[in-house]
Amino acid sequence: MAQHSALRRTPLNEAISAAGGRLVPFAGWEMAVQFGGLVAEHQAVRRACGVFDISHMGVLRLRGEAAKDALQGLVPSDLFRIGPGEACYTVLLNEQGGIRDDLIVYDRGWCAGPGCAPDSHELLLVINAACAEADTAWLRSQLEPAGIAISDAKGDGVLLALQGPEAAARLEALTGTPLAGLPRFGHRELELSGIGPAFAARTGYTGEDGFELLLGRQAGIALWQRLLAEGVTPCGLAPATACGWRRACTSTAPTWMPPPRRWRWGWAGWCIWRCPSPSSAGRCWSARVPRG
Question: What is the pLDDT of residue 119?
Answer without folding.
Answer: 74
